[in-house]
PTS lactose/cellobiose transporter subunit IIA (Paenibacillus odorifer), 107 residues
Amino acid sequence: MVDEVKEEYYTVAFNIISNVGAAKSSVMEALYAAKEGDFKGAEEKLEESKQFFREGHKMHKSLIKREANGEQLQFSLILVHAEDQLMSVETISLLVTEMIELYKRAK
């Protein structure tokens, strides 16, 4: 039973890491596109990034709900890493969105 729960948490953590990693890649591609003046491509990449981020956030939210319902979650460095990645990508996305606006104004 314990191993099944641990494996489930790892699966959730790796799904978060995978999705937010893809979100980060897409948001950076959006920035590079904007830098080249391809604002349509930048917007498409931003939307792609948001979709990946939402998936990662949905997985994270499922763990929060479980804990809020009284389930005791075990500490896991992998889960901490997943949360760190989630928060980092959220910050990067906000900054890149603002940078794209600056590129638009400069053109």
In short: The domain at 2-106 is CATH 1.20.58.80 (Methane Monooxygenase Hydroxylase; Chain G, domain 1).
